[in-house]
Design a protein that fits this description.
The chain has 176 residues and is α+β, with helices and mostly antiparallel strands. The protein is built from 4 helices and 7 strands, in the order E-H-H-E-E-E-H-E-H-E-E. The chain has a single domain, classed as Gcn5-related N-acetyltransferase (GNAT) (Aminopeptidase, 3-Layer(aba) Sandwich). The N terminus is likely disordered. The structure holds coenzyme A. GO terms for molecular function: acyltransferase activity, transferring groups other than amino-acyl groups.
Amino acid sequence: MVEITSATPQYSVRPATEADVPQIDTIVNYEIKTSVSNFNYGPRSAEEGLTWFRSTVAGGYPILVATTVVDDQEVVAGYSSLGGFRHKDGYRFTAEYSLYIHHEHRRRGLGRILLKDLLVEAKARDFHAIIGSISEGNEGSLNLAAEFGFRVVGTMRENGRKFDRWIDNTFVELLL
Ligand SMILES: CC(C)(COP(=O)(O)OP(=O)(O)OC[C@H]1O[C@@H](n2cnc3c(N)ncnc32)[C@H](O)[C@@H]1OP(=O)(O)O)[C@@H](O)C(=O)NCCC(=O)NCCS
């Protein structure tokens, strides 16, 4: 594993541990409840969060967190991770990224730092193609992906349904 060195004056990035999972779940569950950036309908349980963490790590995929200190407590302000993109053998060098910043910590450069370090990790682990799936209306994610050279592959129309409406999904890809 490469050493994680990115840091801002207020935040630092490191590999996630199981102890971070409850705070990661809180970030994910806020998005599940309020947005279409995550297509789940109901909250992720603590047990599901741990299962996700353990299977991601066991699968050879990285999970990074950006943390800061509030009242002497370390707080997880965002995370990035990779996961499998389809399951047949030939897809093993392709991974899909996830990137979530706590809503109170956005537009401070954390998404940029976590994606940058995730791509360093991806290269170190010999992944070849990184895929992003961005639901409609998420201009921030599209802008950020474009900044890193992701190419828009195409938009799948109405392949998601949430909050009683159909949602388009744009796929982006970066070859490492
Ligand atoms: C998308 C997301 C990860 C961006 O994280 P962030 O830490 O707020 O982004 P950054 O501060 O690093 O911004 C980097 C660049 O991304 C773009 N960007 C980020 N948020 C944006 C927004 N709301 N509107 C337009 N562009 C945005 C800008 O180009 C920005 O650069 P700038 O601040 O110099 O203009 C964050 O909004 C988030 O977690 N959203 C909910 C979950 C989600 O959509 N995840 C992605 C699924 S693919």
